[in-house]
Amino acid sequence: MTLPASAREPTEVEVETSTASQPETQNSKPQTDAMEVHKHPHHVTHKKKWNEYLLEFLMLFLAVFLGFIAENIREDQAEKKRGEEYVKSFVEDLKKDTAQFRMLISEYTEADSATNQITSCYDTVNHHANSTVCLSTIISYLTGFTDYIYTDRTIQQLKNAGGLRLIQDKTVADSIISYDALVRGELIHQDVLENYQSSSIKAIQNEIDFASFHQLLKSQPNRVASPQLLKTDRLNVDELFNTLWTFKINLESQLAHVQRLKQKAEKLISFLESKS
Fold this sequence. Notes:
By secondary structure, this protein is mainly alpha-helical. It has eight helices and no strands. Helix content is 68%, strand content 0%. α2 (50-115) packs antiparallel against α8 and α3 (118-127) runs antiparallel to α8 (234-275). The termini are far apart.
């Protein structure tokens, strides 16, 4: 009688077969505990060392510093160029001033030569009250002088815009300032001469008849009739010639000042052109 498979004991062969057919289960424990985790320097949880912070700071500082230096170099070059343009413009102004000085020197020299006759003319009039031909030439040179107009286009720009600081050569800047001061003095001299000229004309009006005086101021030198003195006494004659002599002194002072200005302008032109 054969027993059912469930009721009988398994044979030795069946046990081996059953054991071999079943998968072997292992108690595999995670190895994460035994593994060492390596973090990359750029990982979010990576903590930088102090030397890394220092290196980054130095690199950033160097970049900013070099940019600052480059910007300063560009600004210096731009300011240097502007300063050179100011100097060239100032030289052109000097040339215009020099042309005016030459014209003024010619006028003043001619007038000064005419007034050299004052002493001899005084002796003549003192001895012969009607011998006043010499006065016509002298009085004619009391008027007609050309006004000096300062060409200060560039110097005003330098002052108003602070452009003098753009001129890096201190000797150039000092020369410009010195010239400007000298010209300001010339303008004062010119005003003084004009005041003496005006007062001299008024004084002479009181000594000469109207027809002669009007003709003297209207005509060219040496082409007028002898002026007629209203008073021929010694006192009035002295007052007339004292007026003329005072005018001559101021005329000579003005002439000398313009000559110095012309020399200064010419030297300054040569100096500035040598620097460009």
